[in-house]
Amino acid sequence: MRLKSLILGAVCLAAVATPALAQTLTAITGGRVLTGTSVIENGTVVIQNGRVVSVGTGAAPAGARVIDARGKVVTPGLVAVDSGLGGSEISSVAGSDDLSNGANSISASFDVSYGLDPWSFTLPVARLGGITRAIVVPSHAGGGGGGHRHDDSDFAGVGDGGLQSPGLFAGQAAIIHLAAGTDILVKPRVAMVAPFGEAGAGIAGGARGAQFTQFKETLAEVRLYARNRGAYDRAGLRDLSLSRADLEALIPVANGTMPLIVTVRRAADIQQVLRLAREEGVRIILDGAEEGWLVADQIAAADVPVLLNPISNLPGNLETRAVRMQNAAALDAAGVIIAIKGNDGSHRVRETRYNAGNAVSHGLSYESAIEAITVNPARIFGMAGQFGELRAGAAADVVVWSGDPLEPLSNAETIFIGGAEQAPTSRQFLLRDRYRDGGEGAMPPAYSR
Q1: Residue 149 CA: distances (Å) to CA of 18, 21, 326, 339, 435
Q2: Which domains, from first to last, does the chain contain?
Q3: 129: closest CA among 391, 373, 300, 381?
Q4: 101, 248, 382, 397: which has the fewest C-beta neighbours closer than 10 Å?
């Protein structure tokens, strides 16, 4: 009975919030406020109706619930990029992983937002690490965030029905919030995902040049389809290598309104991807870019943002011969907008802030590190001013820390998402409390001590 209650309680973590508090006028006072773009000493953050009302140094407004943050640090909620939160419970258990797709007729049109699970046990754990929003991406060959698969030995070609098999595209990313409740989706279809470099070459036929040629031909087909939908409906158009669903999904990529997240590592591959983006008029976001520091000036000139893990420092293959922990600092110094990733798409997302701290220890400024885990992800995915920053009108995603958020010994003591205060616990904490105290249910019912 006790075990059933424990499991029920853990599941309810995702469904029980404090919605009344989202409407309550609340003032967080006296803390060192890192807005995402500036620092306010002895600051006051006022929130109500799910939004930030004001950020400054004034006193708490009359009638407000006051949270004393003296000696503490107040930040926007952190934003996880290249994440699998809510989309994968255990990547090795296929039935719990909704980030992977192998259908040759559904590649670019694969939409991860339909597989999101608000009751996932991974969400409260990430939330305790100060994560309040996340960009969830489909898994793909060579990927290292939301999920990755290494089955890039299958070469692309014309499969059943004349469709690409496997497809060059992994699918479309979505934005979620991590507040307890039954609907975590913020915005679906915010970016397309595709591997390039060694992984992309493996999909396309074994050579990088083959993938670039196939990519250009695919965009040509998409544009042909977009101009001739009527002819396509009448079967008056030549055979195309993608399904109608995939063609439709790629139109925003082809016309430059949807960004393409490109997983790429080698400096030479980064150069070629930048060239491809110029030639085809597509917007790209580099993911990984371990050798990005070698071509940082070119990335900056192209105004292309980068999602990276700053603690990558060991060459795993010939794509990462020049990997170094100063990558984040070098890209930032060149003027590249960077967003820092955690160490795993689902279970170690809470380590995002640790990685930011490591980047600081290798030359990245503290201010840039905070931006890279708050405001920059929002900017990169078209949500600037809506979250990731403490400013009037932004979502009231606010975290009060016991100390420096980039210091591992600091804890997120109070967490608001959309103005609602979140329970400071997780399934792991419930299990700890159950077995640590040896209370009811700590032993099987028939067991006598």
Answers
A1: 38, 42, 27, 23, 36
A2: 78-384 (3.20.20.140)
A3: 373
A4: 382
Higher pLDDT: 64 or 155? It is 64
Which residue do the tokens 């279970």 mark? Answer: 347
Which contiguous run of DSSP H or E holds residue 186?
strand 185-195
- Which parts of 286-388 fold into alpha helices (H)? 296-301, 327-334, 352-361, 366-372, 375-380
Q: Which residue has the tokens 């999602």?
A: 307
Contact 257, 288 (CB under 8 A): no
One-letter amino acid for residue 363 of the chain: G
Give tens-digit pLDDT for 192-250: 999 999 998 988 888 999 999 999 999 999 999 999 999 999 899 998 989 999 999 99
Q: Do you know the residue count of the chain?
A: 449
Whole-angstrom distance, CA of residue 346 vs CA of residue 135: 11
Q: pTM of the entire structure?
A: 0.90
- How far apart are alpha carbons 270 and 262 in whole angstroms? 9
Dihedral angle at the C-alpha atoms of 28, 32, 35, 38, nearest 10 degrees? 150
What CA–CA distance (Å, rounded) separates 338 from 370?
11
Instruction: Report the DSSP beta bridge partners of residue 53.
Output: none
Q: Which helix (H) or strand (E) covers residue 188, if one does?
A: strand 185-195
Q: How many C-beta atoms surround the C-beta of residue 362 within 10 A?
A: 16
3-state secondary structure of 313: coil
> What average pLDDT does the chain have?
89
pLDDT, average across residues 157-180: 79
